[in-house]
Amino acid sequence: MEFLRHLVVLIHLVGFAVLFGAWVVELVNGKRGITRLMNWGLAIAGVAGLALAAPWGIEYDLNYAKIGTKLVILIVIGALLGIGAGRQRKTGSVPPAIFWLIGILTFANAAIAVLWR
Question: Which superkingdom heads the taxonomic lineage of this protein's source (predicted)?
């Protein structure tokens, strides 16, 4: 059971890697837009995170403060992706503040996943 949990943790981190990697590609290319790959990365990380929040086969208590913090950040990232995609369709570009917040919050959420014990 512990192996399965570690596998879900890996999938969770891969989801954030996909989201952050797509963000970095947009940053380096200079487009600074919202892509479908960002949405897929967010979905992968979110579903795996919800699976990790279930108390299945562990001998220790879950850190509900960490789970809540990561969930709030995930929801904010999703909202920013939605707002940014809407603005991108309407005006052709994403506001810089929204674009940068997506990258910063994604990095912060992955850091919380790894560093907060």
Answer: Bacteria
DSSP annotation of 94 reads -
Q: What is the Cα–Cα distance from 67 to 101, expressed in whole angstroms?
A: 20
Q: Which domain holds residue 96?
A: 1-115
Please give the structure tokens belonging to residue 34.
């919202």
Structural domain total, the chain: 1
Tell me the three-class secondary structure of 15-61, residue by residue: HHHHHHHHHHHHHHHCCCCCCHHHHHHHHHHHHHHHHHCCCCCCCCC
2: its two tokens: 């512990």
pTM: 0.91
